[in-house]
Specification:
Mean pLDDT: 86
Strand content: 5-15%
Strand order of the largest sheet: 1-8
Number of strands: 8
Low-confidence stretches: none
Distance between the termini: 73 Å
Shape: globular
Length: 290
Amino acid sequence: MMNGCRNREEKRERRRKTRQEKREKTIQEVKSAPVLSAVYFFLRVAVIAVMCLQILNGDYYNVAMCALTLILFTIPSIIERRLKIDVPNVLEGIVLVFIFAAEILGEINSFYLKYTFWDTALHTTTGFLSAAVGYSLVDILNKNSKNINLSPFYVAFFAFCFSMTVAVMWEFIEFFMDYFFLTDMQKDTILHTISTVELDPTKSNRAVVIRNITDVTVNGMPLGLGGYLDIGLYDTMKDMGVTFIGSLVFSIFWALYTLGKIKGWFILKLIPKRMEEEKKDDPEKLGDGK
């Protein structure tokens, strides 16, 4: 009986110490990164407020989007704890704002429709950040990175290719959602000119061009769109194009930095690193080869 009571006391004491350690760690994180903590707090409060509003409106799809956003907010900290990867505060802050801009502002508040530049800006940012993550993978996945000399152009090329692969995978996801769940993630575009071999009466693979399209009729009903409704091709290619630009910009900046042509203080704040790495480790070690 005494042993059982003692064990329960020990468990309660361990739980108390664990809670105390978590509180101390949280306080330490807030003190070490006050700006990031403020951004994280503000965004969480904003998402919770939007979630409450959506519950009152009975829009449970948007409630689920808010819940997903809160889960996505935890990814940087999970990566740090589970994978022992240090996510720079600047990168983490940008990621949090990006998630909020995409899910809450873009989807729930319809910024994608209200502001034509919104989707373009987010995909350009994705290209830039994905290239930064692509570079960091070269460092993180190579255990003996200190003994590797790689051309800065090779590393920049890998970062660029990684970013473009992420973009392609995302377009696959958008098509999957549109095809199987009848969403409209690959947004439509109104066109006034189309060319297609499907209308070639000779079936000789010659494109028939239709110009000055002012309306389209579906099942006898005019859509009133002022043109032909493209179902996602232009949106997909635009997204890939701006991601290409973002990826290329980061890759060029990184290559110039490793060659000593420019200062790279901002680039360094976007690159995750292994926590056990010594602080003196510099990203140039992966790109100082000839």
